[in-house]
Amino acid sequence: MIPAAFDYLAPTTVEEAVQAMSRAGADAKVLGGGQSLIPVLRLRLATPTTLVDLAGVGELRGVRQDGDAIVVGAMTTHHDVLTDPLVAEHAALLADATRTVADPQIRHRGTFGGALVHADPAGDLLAPAVALDAEMVIAGPAGRRTVPAAEFFVDLFTTAVGPDEVLVEVRIPKKTGWGTHYEKFNRVAQAWSIVAVAAAVWTENGSIAQARVALTNMGHTPVRAVAVEQALVGQQAGAETIRAAAEYAASSTSPMPDGSADADYRRHLARVLTGRAVAAAAGTDGART
Amino acid sequence: MTTTREPTLPTEFGRARKRKEDARLITGRTRWTDNLVLPGMLHLAVLRSPAAHATIASIDTDAARRAPGVIAVFTGRDFADEQGSLPCAWPITEDMVAPQVPALAVERVNFVGEAVAVVVARSAAEAVDALESIRVDYQGLPVVLDMEEALADGADLVHPELGTNRNALWVFDSAEVGSGGDVAAAIRDAEVVVRRRFRQQRLIPAFMEPRSVVVDPTGEQFTMWSATQVPHILRLMVAMTLGIAEQKVRVIAPDVGGGFGGKLQVTPEEIITFLAARRLGKPVKWTESRSESLVAAHHGRDQIQDITIAARRDGTVTGLSVELLADMGAYLRLVSPGIPILGAFMFNSIYKIPAYRFACTNVFTTKTPTDAYRGAGRPEATFAIERIMDELAVELGIEPLELRERNWISHEEFPYTTVATLTYDSGNYEAATARAKELFDYQGLRAEQRRRREAGDPVQLGIGISTYTEMCGLAPSRVLGALRYGAGGWEHASIRMLPTGKVEVVTGSSPHGQGHITAWSQIVADQLGVDFEDVEVLHGDTQSSPKGMDTYGSRSLAVGGTAVVKAAEKVVEKARTIAAHLLECSEADLDYARGRFTIKGTDKGITVSDISLAVFAAHDLPAGVEPSLDSEATFDPENFSFPHGTHLCATEVDTETGRVSIRSYVGVDDVGHVVNPLIVDGQVHGGLAQGIAQALYEEAVHDEGGTLVTATLADYLVPSAADLPHFTTDRTETPATTNPLGVKGVGEAGAIASTPAVVNAVLDAVRHLGVSDIEMPCSPQRVWRAVQSARGAIKSSSDQGGAR
User: Fold this and answer.
1) Is the CB of B798 less than 8 angstroms away from the CB of A247?
2) pTM, 2 dp
3) Residue A251 and residue B799: Cβ atoms within 8 Å?
């Protein structure tokens, strides 16, 4: 298919980008890596009048340290996230999930910020952002504001980013030395997750001191599995404990049925995959990887 | 077998040549139809019905006509007097009922995706933009989606004017034909009877290159480029459908990027583009989007199979009954009604079954029409027989390979005439099976399976078997005639000897990815003693290749390749006369091998290349001999070819999630002599991918309104290399006796063999848990639910919170 006609703007700074969005009005869309937006345009599921392409905004790319956090620019590609040493050291969970995104071609084009703002509930980077307590820095006409991940995802394909705003960067508190795992369940390699689980644990003397667990595609927005986390903390990192805690995975979820999986099956998968993700993160999964 | 090979000389035949055509194809130096740009060319876009069944009350095209760049807008009413009815070349029974098939809907739409109106504009973008401003008033009619409901009394009708949704009933009964006994009696008297209902889900061919057409009207002459498998059939059908003089139509299939039967079609869009170009007097191009392709190009499979097998306790099969419902969709396309009939002769497969009855009811529904898809009828048949052999094995407590061995035709029994009246010329099922077992480590995997079962491992192991054969190399014309098919099954080739000794081969079998250019070059290099590189293969243009039956049904090598051999033999015979003249000897004194004539007992000789130059000069030819070595041949096979093999699949089934992983896959095929093992491997790998896809991934799903919900490749799951296992392939080589090369078809074998091997393996993994069937595709959810249901452990989820 061929997209409907649109105006195209290519700012080179965040300020120009915000101005462009403000001027273009409600029918403007930000173009990041285009891996979700371009298909939507081609299918004419969206017909924005203006595209604001952030490819030329250099300050939006790259990963840096800032005290206790690493900061990932919104236009950093999945490939760059995946190969970044700071991410590997301090936010391994993000690398785990990014590794499962689509294929190498798409990972070279698609961006971290684009995936978050697109807010597809089956997208793989939302749950890690929530699990890692990331904070999103958003620029608008009134300046910059910071929104925690827990409040960033508002609904299906809807985030806290306003129509005249642009996501600038994502601050991720360092989780250096944590055990992490992203357990993804999909039907073919290039398909979206039916369910996936992002898990990060901090163990001390074989006991789980801290745990972060979040679920992909178990509702309109990523779900933090608080009950699982609570059931894990203070327990020995053993198979039984983890399995028992994983039984809480489907609580507070509202999965949507589709052709591949109904809601009950998704809840079942959430429990099984949570057990596997936590076990892998805690290093107690034995042979299973 | 007659061999045309000289075994003492090194040959191209059998060499693992890299394909000549690939360097160009994989570096983008291609001539896809959509790459064509003609001066003044216009672009056509199609508005498609969003309704599965509706009357078209009105169409308002005013706004579209005024849209930028728009040259014309056409609806069905504009073409009603000239579009004719799209052809169905296979009226399977005398009393078959069939609707008129408009290329562009006139009064009613009968499936989602049917063409309703078209815009022709200066650019493709403007054409697509203008589609949005066409307003169609649809008045909804009841949809017809379920085949059994469609056949019930008082059912809503797809085509009310036909008075029924039943297209045809086609029956083969071995008792009536005299080829075997009475199935009803066999079932009545059987010690064991197993009945199963299998569902062949609807599939979408999903060729890589979307369909595309360019029509260039130049005065009275029309040139049509199309991404088609069948340029020759297309030319004929365009002429017949539109009442145009055949000689005024030239059809070219340039590079064509895959078809799998999906481009064995005369499409509405080809006719529409032709009519638009003729009306406007300008070249017009149409290229479909992937979304259009999935909804509007024909689909495949879609059968309900009721299978009954009768046997003695010792495992001897005594009868087989097959009752099919086959979904035609809304219309009959080129060979739609015949697709299930291509399976009719294959349900008995490699087994000696004394009584057989097959009855197929073709049904109209308000869905996309179905037609050929890789294997076309034979995968469905192979699946059913190989699945029910496993079920019978379980029922009898006999090892499934052992059960097959007790019933199959042994290698001493060939040629063997089956209960379905086909004569299998050759085969060796024992050899292929033995080799497959060896490569697979059959006993080792069975031992591991026992261990896992005993340990209650959450990941269980299953072994699936498919000992298949199939009929291909379509086809002996007299057989096609007996089946009421509208054409013959011959193939044509011609050879042009150039003065420099180079060779042009013209084939009527037009490739769309198979590697004909390489294989034909290898064959001709041996026949005429020229270098592989010195052979050019021309195809796919009715002007340079005027005769042909095109490419489908694994026919190209067995039929078209034989025609090439026959044409080469004629070149040699013509050259022999001239060689004798030039060497001043009698023809009887000449030996011929690999392009060189020699006088017996001497080293004096002359090559075909030298003769080519002498013929070009024509200074010194025998009296009355024409100055040409060129030749042509048309070959009509006397029989099908019957490749066979044994495929073994080991799957791991995660009983906690339902996920199926293929642990190992061994396919040992017998495709007779092999011209190029790389091409054969490629065909087998691709076929396996598509067969495994049917078993595990692909399914065209409609909602209750008749809308295809798997209408993008995000929803219709075509597996990639990342999802498929390593394939271990090998061959046994039992030559076909019905063609001079001893070859059999290989284009469909992998797709035919693999689906039941995978599904049998999935069931074998969870059979001990009480599961006896899982519908295809065996998705994780289906597998998990089958296990849960068998355990009697379906209990509501402990937390029922949230939306459903």
Assistant:
1) yes
2) 0.96
3) yes
